[in-house]
Amino acid sequence: MSKSKKVPNRWFIFTSAWIIIFLVASIAIFSVFSEPMTKLHGWSSADYNLAYSLYTLIFAIVAIFAGMITDRYGVKWLMYIGGLFFGLGWFLTASVTTIPMLYVTFSLIAGSGAGMMYNSALVTAMRWFPDKGGKISGLLLSSAAIGPFILSPIAAMIIERFGVLVSFRILGIVFFIGVWAVGWLMYTAPANFRPKGWKLPSEKEQSQKKKAAIINLNWKEMLATPLFYLLFLTLVAASTAGTMMVSSASVIAQDQVGLTATVGAVIVSISTLSNFVGRLAFGVIYDKFGSYIALLINLVMTIAALLLLTMATSLVYFTICIIILGFAFGGLLVVFPPLTSQSFGQKNFGMNYAIVFLGYSGGAFVGPRIASYFKETTGSFTTAYIAAAILTAIGIGLVGLVLFLNKKKEKKQQAIIA
Q1: Which residue ranges run through the membrane (predicted)?
Q2: How far apart are CA 267 and CA 298, in angstroms?
Q3: Residues 139, 15: contact at Cβ < 8 Å?
């Protein structure tokens, strides 16, 4: 970047990305709308929850193209267009009368807007902080937990006072204004940006340069590696439990412990608060122990929470399980962005991470469907917990395969360097 061109304050960019992710993460309050919407229209919970699954699928697909645009042209206009679509989707959902209409307004329109913004804002902000690693990932993604924590009780109160349809309109307007208010601050970092005064130790810097020469894959090259598919399937397996609870936390709390809808909304807030703490904690865990140890810790915690949930009948016990599961799920989404950059390089990070993130949409499709299917066929969510735990255990096996492949790769790299 030339001396005449002023470098923007990277903390303004971080703040803008934080607010945008905060607003887009409002999808986590989806379960608060479940009971009033299904009762109002006479829909089944399975049909209603499919809107969430389709939303995350469309979100992930659009994010791939948004990642390509981010890597090549920058991100600012994506925030404006995405903010318009996102707010409009929520607003129009108030007018739906059929399930297909819900899928168009919420899943397609709002999901497309979210896909334009979420990963693009995250990747853009992270490129301004090469000196902070997992901590910045944790801080940025903490907003995705704080958002639902604040918005869940607010949404419940708005629904109670104005009705569920007006609530969709109010939130749609708020989301549109919020994104446009900060989207203009999203500037793209120069290539190989380094903060002023930041230097790696010379030996470590040389090592990093050697690695950068070896690991700098575009999306086609990434898809040709076994590592991509192992990471992708790990994310599918690991995100199943978390997305199951995000989409159905309020309903599960009411069914399993006999809570009211208002207290169920509080459970959603508790889950998202623990999710927030998990994001901050795993940013530190990532930097201290490395990506794969952090991921293994995360998966073990998820399995423990799921198995404990099968026996949770009291409010206190159930809440403890939700806290553990929320903590682990929050950490999962912190680990994968820097892990993707570490595995496939920084240059094409935007598009590469968007493709890896499709694994999350896979988990978001499987999780809610597992919850709805076993609830309808067995009358409880217990079998759903066990199924999600099995999938998470498969994720641990996949991480083991990744570590094995990485050891082989390191040996080859050492031989080349020598």
Answers
A1: 12-32, 52-70, 77-96, 102-126, 138-159, 165-187, 227-253, 259-277, 289-309, 315-339, 351-371, 383-405
A2: 21
A3: no
Query: Can you read off the two tokens belonging to residue 236?
Result: 């599918």
Structure tokens at 271: 């889950």
Question: DSSP alpha helices (H): ranges in 163-214?
Answer: 164-182, 202-214
Rounded Cα–Cα distance for residues 46 and 371 (Å):
9
Question: Per the structure block, which two tokens stand in for 225?
Answer: 């590696």
| Residue that has been written with the tokens 């929320």 in this structure | 326
Q: Which residues of 326-342 are buried (b: 16+ CB within 10 A; e: fewer)?
A: bbbbbbbbbbbbbbbbe
Across the 418 residues of the chain, what is the mean pLDDT of every consecutive 10-residue run? 64 93 83 85 85 85 88 86 95 93 95 92 86 79 80 85 91 94 87 70 47 70 92 91 75 78 75 85 87 92 92 86 90 88 83 88 81 82 90 93 79 62
Domain boundaries, the chain: 10-188+213-417
Looking at domain 10-188+213-417, its CATH superfamily turns out to be: MFS general substrate transporter like domains (1.20.1250.20)
Q: How far apart are CA 299 and CA 290, in angstroms?
A: 15
Q: To 10 degrees, what angle do helices 10-24 and 164-182 make?
A: 170
Taking the model in full, what pTM does it have? 0.75
Name the nearest CA neighbour of 87 among 103, 105, 110, 57. 110
